[in-house]
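Subject: Re: docking follow-up (zinc ion)

Dear J.,

Thanks for your patience while I sorted out the input files. As discussed at Tuesday's group meeting, I've set up the holo structure prediction with zinc ion included as the bound ligand rather than trying to dock it afterwards. The sequence and the ligand SMILES I used are pasted below, so you can double-check that they match what you have on your end before we go further.
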Amino acid sequence: MLLAEPLERAIEELSKLPSIGKKTAQRLAIHLLKNDQTDVDSLIKAIVELKTKIHFCVDCFNLAVDDKCAICLSQKRDKTIICIVEEASDVIAIEKTNEYNGLYHVLGGVLNPLANVTADSLHIAELVKRVDSGEVTELIFALNPDSEGDTTSLYLIKIFKEYPLKLTRIARGLPIGGDLEFADIATIGRAFIGRITV
Amino acid sequence: MVLKQVELSNFRLHRSTSLSFSDKLNLIIGGNGQGKTSILEAIYYLCTTKNLNLASEKDVVTFGEQFFEVAGSFSDISNNKTRIFFDNILNKKNFFLDDKQVFRSADIYGKFPIVILIQSDHAITLGAPSERRRFVDSVLSQASHSYLEILLEYNKTLRQRASLLSLLKETNDKNLYSQLDAWTETLIENGSEIIKQRVNFVNEFNVYMDQTYDKVIDKLEVPRIVYNTLCDMDEENTKQKFNDAIASAREEEKRKCTNLVGPHRDDFIFHINELELKRFGSQGQHKTFQVVLRFAQFFYIKDKLGKTPIFLMDDVFGELDFFRAEKISEYLSEVGQTFITTTDFTRMEELNLIKENRIIKVEHGKTSYA
Ligand SMILES: [Zn+2]
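The structure tokens for the complex came back this morning:
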């Protein structure tokens, strides 16, 4: 069966989204077609603003509306502790636990030579600069407990072991192979409280 | 644990086959190329999500069809249904446990333990070290989920590290050395754990080998497996020795862009009466050893998991002349649910068939009960 071209294009675009199959994309497209114009307009606006108004924080590479993210800007956060994570989604997962009150540093990935990711491709130089500037006394490693996450932690530990810093990593309460992003809030919370010195 | 029934759709010659099984012995009889082994292949899929002979899924789909599907139900303390669906167009395999999709094969492996005695087993005693590692890994992975997880991480680390070695050779970027050190540390960490678990495994498994030999063989033969790894089994110094060995292989590793040190190069040396099987064993001794490895695997996994594996024998019954048939048959009654394929009708009476047993005839993908 041949669909009207705009509909076909909408289905095509929607099905590019993660965990959206052809069938779901079709259902969504039809739903949008039936929807009020105002609802569709506000969805379009939200998507456009998502792309134009959200940036990466210049300090920690978390998501931000301004130059700096809400966490870096907050007066209530403890600026002497930095928690190192892989992606901005990990920040969201940790924030939900309410167990952590320091700052973050989003690496933008982990070492992965198979995918051509070496230290140069991650925000490591920026992290060194932040630590060099003085205030920091503790680094917490909260990378996923797999080969890539562990190796990235080991690499960073080598860099920072000469610094007068406390280096810790979150406890391994997390399921092996289970990403931080998907672990439940209570588990991440416990992992933070039980963090150990490396 | 027993497999109650299976349904095969578009699975090689089986367009639509539905079978229910005996909790004891299931004898699958048919000529060559009629679809006997496909039934075992389907059972293996249900237990492991993997192909029995490492064949491609595309080859399993009946010619001209768009998918294959196998569904089965297991009965244990609880009842479980598993189903595998392969989409030939998307080239995608989906696995379901009780109608919920499972995304990692590792989460299934060991849940429905299975042991299979197959003709290609000759490679375990006669072939390259990789064949013996594969045997040991398959036993340990079913018996210990933590071993399987570490093995997967270790293999990934090997690929990552080899890739970095290539990058190092290509670019000669000095900054990559400290990253290589970090990968080496992860390799040693995971690799040492694998060595430790293999040491324990060989110690325990030798006891199972001994007991099994005593039962199947009249002659006084003593089997022994010796683990050959990169260093002595002293747990304290494994990491140190691993580290030293990697340090001295560094230049060669860089030149060849490959991992030269670690448990991925281990071997397991089989002995009969202190003589190395591979060098001094007769054909009969090899065959015996292969069979005993599988029976020992069965009882090892059974004890470790507290769950009785399904036992499959593919077309090997005819070869077992040197065993007294009643011994094998005695053994099989101890084993639990068994599936045996054979073309050989003549030796059936030696199996002491009882009425709980089931005989399935297979002819060009069509099955019937005898
Ligand atoms: Zn920030």
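A couple of observations from a first look. The interface with chain B takes residues 111-114, 118-120, 146-148, 150-152, 154-155, 158-159, 176-177 of chain A (CB under 8 Å). The pocket of zinc ion is lined by residues A 57, 59-60, 62, 68-69, 71-72 (CB under 6 Å).

Let me know if you'd like me to rerun anything.

Best regards,
T.
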